[in-house]
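Q: Could you write out the predicted structure for this multi-component system? I'm mainly interested in how the pieces pack against one another.
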Amino acid sequence: MINVWELAAFTAVTALAATGLMLVPGVGLAWLLARTDFRGKTLVETAVSLPLVLPPVATGLLLLWAFGRRGPLGMLLGGIGIEVVFTPAAVVLAMTVMGLPLLVRTARAGFEQVTRRHEQLAETLGAGPWRVFTTVTIPLSAKTILAGAILGFSRALGEFGATIVVAGSIPGRTQTLAVGLYSFIETGQDQKALAVLVLSLALACGAVFVSNRLAREA
Amino acid sequence: MAAFDVSVGISQGSFRLEFAVSCEARALALYGPSGSGKTSVLEVIAGLRRPRRGRVAIGGRVLFDAAAGVDVPSRNRRVGYVPQDALLFPHLDVRRKILYGSPDGDWSSAAPVVERLGITPLATRRVADLSGGERQRVALARALASRPDILLLDEPLAALDRAMKRIVLQLLVDLRDQLGIPIVYVTHVSDEATAIADYAVVLDSGHVGASGPAAEILASL
């Protein structure tokens, strides 16, 4: 029988991995959306925000289709011996997809707050685009990016709908706090359900509190 | 003496700027009231604003030529730009701000100018701890530390007290005479313009009202 602390540790590790995975594409997308105009921008904006408005179970179903054995990405990964669905990787995948929109939206607002004139001044001092990005844009929006990452992490911590579809609820393998909570309620394990509930509340409150503090200071 | 050959046209919303000057001078003053287009001309020379037509050549270097398809990126223009609001990076201390554009990143080569501007004791301070005058001097030191080919100064003395104005003005005159760096100096104070510039362009509502030797033109106003 898996204990609550193991569930919490697994959830924290997978949520951290998801946050790490969403960071580079998320910050890149946020910058693209904040600073550039390109054909299909509205389409990209829509695709990025979709997991926020779609029922999480529907997002999970889409992931299951894409990464399943007969799905386009599943076949591709299967060819090199990687199985995703119903593995811990599927948990991380679901958390990443569900957390990404929050990171992108928050980081985008951060980039939009950085005055373009600071970047232009750096250019007059001889800095190329990459140096401007890493020494001016990123430091000036760092707090907002971090706040977005914490929001993405919080979303990942509480992810349920997409995770249960694409990763299932396999104790000790794919079961997270949220999925575990549902399972404990279903099977009448009230003590465990209560413990998971308290733990989830503490984690969520902490993450949102830190994120709000950072966003206010940015 | 450097050749200033700048003729540009800009339209932005209801604002239209038609600017043209061709002269030999050590320093060129752009003189006029707020909103006359002085800063826009500086931004065009710095490469921060793209004119719809025209040509910008200073000291024999062509920075922009719409007809020839030349538009040197601002990072390659080697201009030392000091905006009116200083625009200091808030996340860097004074020392790192000044060295941001320095080719060798060596504090000792920036030290003489820093010392003369009286900002050596500020090296570890952040923007929030600086007064308006200190910010302007740091911005000037930052521009000079990048060893520019052209200095673009937008009201660089505006936030300084009288004593510091004299010191900075003398420093600029020395830079002009000893290093031969062409200067474009934006101001609405005629005394400053005549002290530093030998040629002046008077701007009014986006048009050149008058241009010629600074002392002569500004005395006639």
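A: Regarding packing and overall arrangement: Chain A touches chain B through 15 residues (CB under 8 Å).
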